[in-house]
Amino acid sequence: MKATIDRDQCISCGVCWSECPELFEENSADGKSQITGKYRVSGDISTGEAPESLRETGQTSADGCPVSIIHIE
Q1: SS3 sequence of the chain
Q2: 23 to 27, 28, 68: CA distances (angstroms)
Q3: Are the beta carbons of 55 and 72 closer than 8 angstroms?
Q4: CA atoms within 13 A on the CB side of 34
Q5: What is the pTM of this model?
Q6: Longest Cα pair distance anywhere in the chain, in angstroms?
Q7: Which of 16, 1, 6, 4 is nearest to 57 (CA)?
Q8: Most buried of 7, 53, 55, 58, CB within 10 angstroms?
Q9: pLDDT in tens, the chain (73 residues)
Q10: How far is CA 10 from CA 4, 49, 52, 53, in A?
């Protein structure tokens, strides 16, 4: 499962890391959402590859994002 975040549009609401803390976390430098280190692709904090077991909570995070900047594929 691929997860991406458009960090430029993130408003730091925290919905994603509240719903799926295994995949999303707050960046301590700017307060915006990022992919957790375990699932980052090539160190990119906005792109992740996660197991299918996280699809449901990842999608819940995407659906709950008020600015619709999280994409689950």
Answers
A1: CEEEECHHHCCCCCHHHHHCCCCEEECCCCCCEEECHHHEECCEEEEEECCHHHHHHHHHHHHHCCCCCEEEC
A2: 13, 16, 17
A3: yes
A4: 15
A5: 0.95
A6: 29
A7: 16
A8: 58
A9: 999 999 999 999 999 999 999 999 999 999 999 999 999 999 999 999 999 999 999 999 999 999 999 999 9
A10: 12, 20, 24, 25
- 16, with CB counted inside 10 A (0-12, 13-18, 19+), is buried
What's at 10, amino acid-wise?
Answer: C
Which tokens is 58 given?
A: 């990842």
Cβ contact 35:46 at 8 Å: yes
